[in-house]
Amino acid sequence: MVTCQGVRKTYGGGAATVVAVDGVSADFAAGEFTAIMGPSGSGKTTLMHLLAGLDTPTEGTVSIAGTPLAGLDDRALTDLRRDRVGFIFQAFNLLPALTAEQNIVLPLRLAGRRVDRARLAALTEQLQIADRLRHRPAELSGGQQQRVAVARALLAEPAVVFADEPTGALDIATGRSLLTGLRDAARQAGQTVVMVTHDPGAATYADRVLVMADGRIRDELSAPSREAIVASMASVAV
Ligand SMILES: Nc1ncnc2c1ncn2[C@@H]1O[C@H](COP(=O)(O)OP(=O)(O)OP(=O)(O)O)[C@@H](O)[C@H]1O
After folding, report:
1. What is the spatial distance between Cα 184 and Cα 68, in angstroms, rounded to a whole number?
2. b/e map of 181-192 (b: 16 or more CB within 10 Å)?
3. Closest CA to 9 of 1, 20, 17
4. Average pLDDT of the residues in 49-77
5. Edge to edge, what strands does the sheet with 18-28 contain?
6. Which atom of ligand 1 is nearest to the CA of 215?
7. pLDDT level of residue 90 (50, 70, 90 thresholds)
8. What is the CA radius of gyration of the chain?
9. Ligand 1: which of 18, 40, 162 to mutate, judged by most atoms within 8 Å of the beta carbon?
C-alpha cells in the first residue's frame, strides 16, 4: 500500500549538511501495523513525513496505493492525502470553534461523504470520548483531544494511517485503548498503519517493528516482545 525505494533526505548544504534519512527501502502492506522506533534524531519523523507526502525526498521514490508521489502536482497530492490518508500527529490540529464530534466528522463532510453513525458511536466508545462529543477542544484534556484526533483519523477508514507518538500524552489505560484501535484498524478494516513511537510497550501492538539509527533501518522485528524490542534498541544505540 505504501512503498519507498532508496529514500534519502538531507537538510542544509556544505559542511552543515544533515542526513536525516539515508537510503531507506520498505513496504507497508494493507492490513499491516508497523511501528518505527529508534533513538532521538534517528530519522523516524522525517521518514514518516516522506511516506505521507508531507515532505519531498532528496533522492528515491515513495508510492501510496500504487501512485508515485513524485509525479503528482500539489493539487493531486492534496487530493490523495485527503482521500487515502489519516494523520494522528502530536499537534492535534483540532478546530477550536467546533465540538469534538464536529471535528471528528469534518474530513468526511469536506469530502461530501456520509457519516456512519454506528461506526462513530463504536469508535468514540472504544476511545472513551463518547460522553465528550459536545465539548469544544478547549474543554477537553490533552489526552481527550488526542483521542478526538484519532477518531477523526480512523472514522473515514483511510487506506493509510500515520501516527506520530500517538500515546505520548495518555495514561496507560487510554493509551492501550488507542493502540487497540490502531490494531483493529489494521486487522479488521485492512488499513495500513504506520506509527512512530519511543515506547516499547506501544510497539508490541504492532505486527512489525522497524528500528532506525542514523537515518537507516538497522533492524526489523516481527511481532516482537517488549524484551526483544528493548534489546534491539540497545544494540543499535552502540
Ligand atoms: N527541517 C529540518 N532542518 C534541518 N534538520 C532537520 C530538520 N528536520 C529534521 N532534521 C534533522 O534530521 C535528523 C532526524 O530528525 P527526525 O526528527 O526525523 O528524528 P526522530 O528520530 O524523529 O527524532 P525524535 O525521536 O527526537 O523525534 C535530526 O538530526 C534532525 O536534527
Report:
1. 27
2. bbebbbeebebb
3. 20
4. 93
5. 18-28, 2-11, 59-64, 67-68
6. 14
7. low
8. 18
9. 18
Closest-CA residue, ligand 1 atom 4, reads 11
How far apart are the C-alpha atoms of 217 and 49, rounded to whole Å?
A: 16
Domain ranges within the chain, ordered by starting residue? 2-237
The minimum-distance atom of ligand 1 relative to the CA of 49 is: 18
pTM score of the predicted model: 0.89
Tell me which residues have their CB closer than 6 angstroms to ligand 1. 11-12, 18, 20, 38, 40-46
Architecture of domain 2-237: 3-Layer(aba) Sandwich (3.40)
Q: In this predicted model, what pLDDT tens digit does every residue of 119-170 receive, in sequence order?
A: 999 999 988 899 999 999 999 988 888 889 889 988 988 899 999 988 877 7
Residue identifier of the C-alpha nearest atom 18 of ligand 1: 43
Q: Comparing 166-175, 192-201, 218-227, which segment has the lowest mean pLDDT?
A: 166-175
